[in-house]
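Pilot study result, target chain (715 residues):
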Amino acid sequence: MKTILDKSTSIKKLLVASLAWGFIITGCSDTEQKKVVKPSFKIESLAESAWLYGSLPENTVAYVRLPNPWSGFSAKADSFKYALGNEEHVKAVKKIQQGVYDNIIAKLQAHAKPLAQFYVEHTKGPVELAFVSQNGQPVVFAGTSLDYSDDTSFNTALQDLVKGIPNANLMPQEGQAKGIISFGPGAAVYYSYNSDKQRFTLVSGMGTSVTSLENAAATIKPNDKHEMLKLEKDIDSSHQGLFVWASPKNAMPFIQMGMPPEKLQQLKELGVDQAKGLALGYGVSDSKTRLKLLLDMPNVGARQFLPVTSNDYDIKSVGQPSSVLVMSWFTAEQIDQFKENMELVKPGFKNDWENFADDFEKQTGQDFDILLRAFGPEVVRINDEVGVYWIFKHDKDLFPKVIESYKTTKDTEYSKKEINGLSIHHIKSPMIPFGMGSMMQPKNNFGAELAKSMKSHMYFSVEGDYIVYATVPQILIERHNRVADTNIASWMSEQQGFRYEHTLLGYTTSIKDISRTSYHYYLELLNQLGDISKAGIDLTLLPTAEELGFPEKGAVGISLISSSDQLGFEFTFENGATDLMVGAGGATAVAVVGILAAVAIPAYQEYTIRAELSPGVYTAESVKSQVSEALVLGAKVEDLDNGFEDILTAEDYETSVIEKIAVNDGVITVFFKSPRLGYGPQTIVYVPMFEGNQITYWDCTGGTVAQKYRPARCK
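Predicted structure:
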């Protein structure tokens, strides 16, 4: 039994360690929560940074960087660099590398061995690919760093590699490390190797000549002004991690080829032609590991439905917080702009808004628009040494009106008490949410009556421009007595590496000993790799976590970003994505925010598509009235087709949303032309249901439009 348990435990540790380091391409932060001795180890890296990213032509359409296979074991400019860059660790990894070369790659079959040697053994940096538009034709650049010290050794290795590629023919220029690899008529790749800089370059393009490929290679030269570099700096300034970038603006000439004018117009209305870049990456930036999706696009088209944020927090916590959630609420101007944008998409939206606001005021006694405008834009939830509470920025003119409304609202009680110089406001109101009063009937239901008697208690105090809200007064009292001393903005940026300035919704938490735990898992992985490669490494030679000066706590965060020119979604880690496993307690809250975002964002997208289809639904209502009226006037059902009386021809109903509306024997089929609905005809079918000669209702469950995009009555 003991043997079985030991094996099971070993396997479990191997899985955890492997998974941990599989995600950790980069390390953790230099931020310290306690006094530690800064290591004095001399740093050595096992892998190099990329270079092609800094030499891209302006007309680059897309770029991809794939990390070097040994990048996860190589030191970078973060605090984990001491763990990966110290002499004993580098020696251990080099022993593992040699073991892989001697005991694994050397035993591969002849056709696979040259490629494995070329990539795993001799490639020192990431592999980079760039897709460029030159004279209207696509050209592909590829680049990496190799360890061949002279042209002869490179040429020999390339010859061995090409021999194993079917239909490939190597045509080198005599005495030089450059030439052409031909794959048949019209398929050629230009290659060159600079042995001084140890940079390998490939250039390819279907149907291009040798001369044009050489000319294309000449365009690879330093360019520190390329628009991609701004996004790359935000995601992976180490230039070693995974990074993918594409320019919708530069790709438009290819996208619009053969595209119908109306489809092209729809893309422009969404703002695609103004999107400078879309990037996804996993790497190091500002001493933190980041997994980030970022869109470089002005606030036009589809972006106008999200508010642009510019947060400036003048808020303090009591001691070091364990977690902070931030949210940027709509400003008064953004609320007005949102209503204008929605009115364009869904005519009548303003009227629906006013109707909802009227119902809200009848149910709660609160003016809906005043309530929206009285708070924000800064909203923060803090978990610190005194507890969990919220801090809202407030409008000093509108907020008193909200309080006055509570004072005069039926079934709501307001009181104020002075404790140790602190004014604590208390509002007690019915707990039943707005719009749910009808669900609590009938009155003789004892459980419903008990639920009605339950109250919602809100306690708050005023601190300058901010309202501090808590569910119990003790939190407010202790915060006042102990005095808040930690600036939240500084804590988020300096300690957590959390970029709050343009965060629409975000959460960051601090987890104890996360770097120390990750390091120990990593050492377990090294042991297993030493066994597999037969390197036989000695872990006792490597430094302890204490000697490496790891911070006491580590950051994990998630944020939705919306600035004037960028929209993004980011995970921030101290050591890598497996921080979510190592710090399960704090990560749970991050996961909750992630799940909420994963639910909320698609739901918002579904809402905008439903709003986009609403003009077609309204037009169908008009056609239904025409069909019903014709029947009342004596028309036969079989006569009710397009062109009968006031019913237009199918194509006459065409708009930016409607392709056509077909009427056949009284059955109405609306054809939509929104590209967001999917491929193929997208329809909603309205079938009249009769009782005698009278239409009692219309069945609109038929058609191909997905259920989630339909009006409620058509599901």
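One observation from the pilot: The longest strand covers residues 375-384. A full batch analysis is planned for the follow-on phase.
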